[in-house]
Amino acid sequence: MLCPNPACQAEIPLLSSFWLANSVRHQAWVEVNGRPGKIDLGIRVVAPPTGIQLSDGTVKASSVTCPRCGTSMIAKEVREYATKVGFGHILYAVLAIDRKVRTYRAPTAEEIKRAERLATALLDELEETPDGTSPLPDEPITKSQFRILRSLVYGIDTFRGLFNDRQLYVLGSLCEAVRAAHTQMLDEGMQPDRAIAVATYLGLCVDRIADYDSSAGRVQFGGSSLRSAAARHRALLRRECSVAMPRAYSSRTIHSTL
After folding, report:
1. C-alpha to C-alpha distance for 237 and 228, rounded to whole angstroms
2. What's the pLDDT tens digit per position in 84-110?
3. Domain boundaries in the chain?
């Protein structure tokens, strides 16, 4: 979101903490550098200098503070901005997992471009279900659930709004694969009841991935593992989220879920 200070107008990253990983074995954190009208984010994989406070990010108790000029917005102002303007998103860190070795790095320009544009373009390729249902979860969220689903107070009033375009494409593709698998099982002679049972199990696997791979899910900073969105339904404003690679051999992916 944009800083309201006319002399600044920088785009503020909404981070509850500057830590990416903070354990005995590994430390990684986000370095913030401000310049006129711009805030640059860098990734550091070394111990931070003494005296730097990383536990508190730009968001605290649903209020937001600009790391460049220090201007703060109270929770009410943040909610109004979210409802009228909306929050943006940007890829600012990549977690690579090679067996049990986890490494954070800054994204390349091509990765940022793909994260912002490619998935959006691919969403049009998803097909409606046979009964005409949209391939995307565009159903409205019941507004009376705002005490549980805090996203409602920030203008996110559909289930689709809980996911970015890349997450939507991955989940939509997995749902298409489950429907195709059900058809194939019937074509190959499997008993209808068994085919439905297997397809239901696969659907539950996709549901599990959706729980962790959404804008409400995030990386557990201590050990760099994914956290469930369910654990954050009552959380205040925290906009950093994780985007998993469902085909990778890591926690909360299609392989570990199966």
Report:
1. 16
2. 998 888 888 888 878 777 889 999 988
3. 19-257
